[in-house]
Amino acid sequence: xxxxxxxxxxxxxxxxxxxxxxxxxxxxxxxxxxxxxxxxxxxxxxxxxxxxxxxxxxxxxxxxxxxxxxxxxxxxxxxxxxxxxxxxxxxxxxxxxxxxxxxxxxxxxxxxxxxxxxxxxxxxxxxxxxxxxxxxxxxxxxxxxxxxxxxxxxxxxxxxxxxxxxxxxxxxxxxxxxxxxxxxxxxxxxxxxxxxxxxxxxxxxxxxxxxxxxxxxxxxxxxxxxxxxxxxxxxxxxxxxxxxxxxxxxxxxxxxxxxxxxxxxxxxxxxxxxxxxxxxxxxxxxxxxxxxxxxxxxxxxxxxxxxxxxxxxxxxxxxxxxxxxxxxxxxxxxxxxxxxxxxxxxxxxxxxxxxxxxxxxxxxxxxxxxxxxxxxxxxxxxxxxxxxxxxxxxxxxxxxxxxxxxxxxxxxxxxxxxxxxxxxxxxxxxxxxxxxxxxxxxxxxxxxxxxx
Amino acid sequence: xxxxxxxxxxxxxxxxxxxxxxxxxxxxxxxxxxxxxxxxxxxxxxxxxxxxxxxxxxxxxxxxxxxxxxxxxxxxxxxxxxxxxxxxxxxxxxxxxxxxxxxxxxxxxxxxxxxxxxxxxxxxxxxxxxxxxxxxxxxxxxxxxxxxxxxxxxxxxxxxxxxxxxxxxxxxxxxxxxxxxxxxxxxxxxxxxxxxxxxxxxxxxxxxxxxxxxxxxxxxxxxxxxxxxxxxxxxxxxxxxxxxxxxxxxxxxxxxxxxxxxxxxxxxxxxxxxxxxxxxxxxxxxxxxxxxxxxxxxxxxxxxxxxxxxxxxxxxxxxxxxxxxxxxxxxxxxxxxxxxxxxxxxxxxxxxxxxxxxxxxxxxxxxxxxxxxxxxxxxxxxxxxxxxxxxxxxxxxxxxxxxxxxxxxxxxxxxxxxxxxxxxxxxxxxxxxxxxxxxxxxxxxxxxxxxx
Lengths: 452, 452
What we know:
Chain A has 452 residues and is α+β, with helices and mostly antiparallel strands. Chain A contains 14 helices and 19 strands. Chain A folds into four domains: 80 residues, Uridine Diphospho-n-acetylenolpyruvylglucosamine Reductase, domain 2; 119 residues, 2-Layer Sandwich (Uridine Diphospho-n-acetylenolpyruvylglucosamine Reductase, domain 3), CATH 3.30.465; 114 residues, Alpha-Beta Plaits; 114 residues, Alpha-Beta Plaits.
């Protein structure tokens, strides 16, 4: 870090080295260089930066840890200030009697998880980047993760949000109670709005007691179609696993190459199933799943001890970063969400597209809720293949919408999916969103150039 | 029913007998008499009624079964047409492979439950009025019910909404996938908007596989405070009951008077706890709850068979209608929602207020999520006591907001709570809601006079 200048006591920088750092995120999006980066430490400092910026006519780009996969946190155009929330890292309250916690937006998801463990509590949303990503960013993108199948996404845990609007006005939406019908749920509108309506400055979340026990099952399949068909059968059996992850053979090879866990790489697909609850009960559920899988020629192994389970998850979470290590290929990643009865059809279609185009497609993700991370691996420095890659993206999105799905399950639209938003939403719906945007931010200061 | 007139083939009436029927709901709200009632049978007919009404300058009041507790479905002011959705009662699809169902808005909650049973599925939200209330009304008020503690409210199951706007434009928000981050979640804004933004014409819901088994426990307490303190302890133990209902002694007496179930009426409070899941597992959970209750001097009985359980629920659901049978008293009912660590404090405060004012207050409801139905029983035809009743409402609401709660957990604001909305929401928040209202309904045709 460099010597920082101060704006009325607030850390701020206009040094090129800082500015470049804040012009990209974890996506392939190319952002522009901001004029300033500011690091407020509390709500009042956010307000002051916002007032200073808007008075100067600067647009505002709120940012958590920059682990976003859609370019939502990178500046677009000129005359921007990035407001980084990374210095707002305080867990303000853990209330084990009300099962709530209140945090500043820059708190790291994984760090909150650790603090909650002391109280035998846990916060279900667990994006793969949980060791780095912030709760504020999670709220701004309505982040999910493997546990969403059983526990839902960020939206399901977010009870109250304090937000700084572009006028500098601070409003708190929601409260600490679990149920509420008191006018329009504006909080719900803010969740997943990717920083375009205001800056989230304080968050109250619902948390849960930790489950008693966990069992992990690995099920391998010779056919990707069978893996896809097994998923709705497991859910239909009345069991709700804690996670129900899908990995195709390319993922398994990639993991083996980097971790040597002894995973079977000769199969076409693997399901990673976790059950939580009372031990005898989840053991019985495990047996039921083994039986279901067998009907689709799936073979099951059980990962019993804590360390083999943790290794497996570390490996699972590393897939996305690992894909960046492939020397000659560049990933275009999307995270489609499909109705689970069309999961098998989707996986087969992805295989087909890969074969037709002769471009490798690596798929993994949250099979239990139909949310698949699709990585189209185009040759580096091959502009023509890259163009083809984006045509494939469009083809996949069109397919997804036809079968009743969504072009993003948990990453958001940002700038990388903005060119495709029309495939998902009709004109009227986009007009309504734009009008809502004007209600909150009439002069268009907040995170311009995103979503629509 | 009377002879109906037709508007381009759509049933409509301006007969006084019909109009009076549609001027009230299940609340104490006094509505005005509409000029017309129309009964469209599909989306296209809704559009035609909307266009006809707005061309004539008539305001529109959408209505399900009229079981609302806040007056949200009753006309206010002059020149209104009630659009009743009760003829739109078709379950259009049940998809047991995707765990979704698509229904018309007039489908009765309980009838949907019955149809789902054939597929061994269930729809969790279960308001007490489930035998009468419609899914459309449930969405408009974000209805909950006893099972919300484990399964959440209507919001958590609503995947897609087709809506007719006041211009006659039809827009579908959401789709059949379980996860989505594709711009602002306008669907979430519509849920709980009490018909003020548009008319819900088609609904896709997520449904779940039926649980294997159910156990019901009755726990009685000599002190209302102990009952309140037991609730967070049960949840903190890692058990999430299917229901965790609270009934005070007045409720128990009321039930005994009408049903003679042999309930203990000498106690101060009762918890009605239901567990669902795999039998051995919930039995063990049941034992754990018995232990926890014992620490607070709670005594537990188990209702094992289906019929005693069903009777108990029938009785529980009848409390609200039973309150109307008290000859000399009139109920002012509210449904506050408080953080559960303040539940005990709230129950004690309600008792206190009742004693201080010498007006009976009967409380029951969903203790597990802090949502309590409070009934202030004022003397009939005693305007002074009624005025005092409303002062008590205000006092309770102020208390609730102070401790971080909500003035309505599942009924909504409608017209009965509109005078108190300022207690809950700040000026800026109300202004934002009004601006959002103008985005959807710039000329103010939709359900005027409600919420704010």
